[in-house]
Amino acid sequence: MTLLVTGYASKKELKAAVGEKPKYIETSMFGEEYKADGSFSVAHRPALGHNRDGREFFARVTMKNGLIAKVE
């Protein structure tokens, strides 16, 4: 499953947010996927949100202490 990230028009903007708390929407109906420590997949899907800025992208985000530590 994948978290839906909001507020990032590109993967470059998401990478610039290293050290910050992520802006996201949980998409799983089976429980939370967000982890304060660990990694998970994220997607930016402008067609699904209110703000249709940017392009669709996917990334792997690693978290440490509730902050973005790495974006791949």
Tally of domains: 1
- Summed up, the helix count is 1
How do the helices and strands follow one another from N- to C-terminus?
EHEEEE
Q: Overall mean pLDDT score? A: 86
- Rg, please? 11 Å
Low-confidence region ranges: none
- Sheet with the most strands: spatial strand order: 2-1-3-4-5
Helix content: under 10%
Largest sheet: 5 strands, mixed
Total strands: 5
What distance separates the N and C termini?
17 Å
In what range is the share of β-strand residues?
25-35%
- Principal-axis shape equals globular
User: Structural class per helix/strand content?
Assistant: mainly beta
Please name the defining characteristics of this protein.
five-stranded mixed β-sheet, 5 strands, mainly beta, 72 residues, 1 helix
Structure description:
- By secondary structure, the chain is mainly beta.
- It has one domain.
- It has a 5-stranded mixed sheet.
- The protein is globular and about 30 Å long.
- The protein starts with a strand and ends with a strand.
- The mean pLDDT is 86.
Secondary-structure map with pairings?
Elements: E1 3-5, H1 11-16, E2 24-25, E3 38-44, E4 57-64, E5 67-71
Parallel strand pairs: 1-3
Antiparallel strand pairs: 1-2, 3-4, 4-5
Summarize the structure in short.
The protein contains one helix and five strands, in the order βαββββ. With 72 residues, it is mainly beta. A hairpin with a 2-residue loop joins strand 4 and strand 5.
